[in-house]
Amino acid sequence: MNDSSGPDRPTPEHRRPAGVDDATVKALGSLSEALEATEQARGDLYAFHRLTGTADLTLGRAVEELRAAGHDDIADELDEVLVGRNVLQGRWTFQIVEEYDDGYYATFRRLEERARSRLAGGRRHLHEAEMKEDRRTAGAAHHEAAPPG
After folding, report:
1. Domain boundaries, the chain
2. Global pTM exceeds 0.70
3. Is 1 exposed, middle or buried (0-12, 13-18, 19+ CB in 10 A)?
4. Residues 48 and 97 sit within 8 Å (Cβ to Cβ)
5. Which end of the chain is more exposed for a tag (fewer CB within 10 A), N or C?
6. How many C-beta neighbours within 10 Å does residue 130 have?
7. What distance in Å separates the CA atoms of residue 31 and residue 37, rounded to the nearest whole number?
């Protein structure tokens, strides 16, 4: 455990501002954890977007290959019913991503940043920084408080 009094200390942006209590640091940590889950969900949404687009392009190739193989009836049905189809009513996946980004995601990020600004001077990951201080071995190799420099 580190006593945080020597030169091996967290950088100022990872130290708790004066007057910020444990409950606030804990709550901001939970808010950060929720935002991180939202970031992961956003990444999964983008993966869904890319995979669905890839599937549609590959389906188009399959339709061409079915036509070339003489299976026009099957190719026609796939082309008319599935190629280029909306994945949700009126939406391709890019529209879903845009709506998510501009609505829920942007609102979440804005409110998380506002809470950090009001409660902790905008500092990020205070809970994790304090957890690191509690868990690391001060002075030991690979347990430094911050990168060199």
Report:
1. 20-135
2. yes
3. exposed
4. no
5. C
6. 19
7. 10
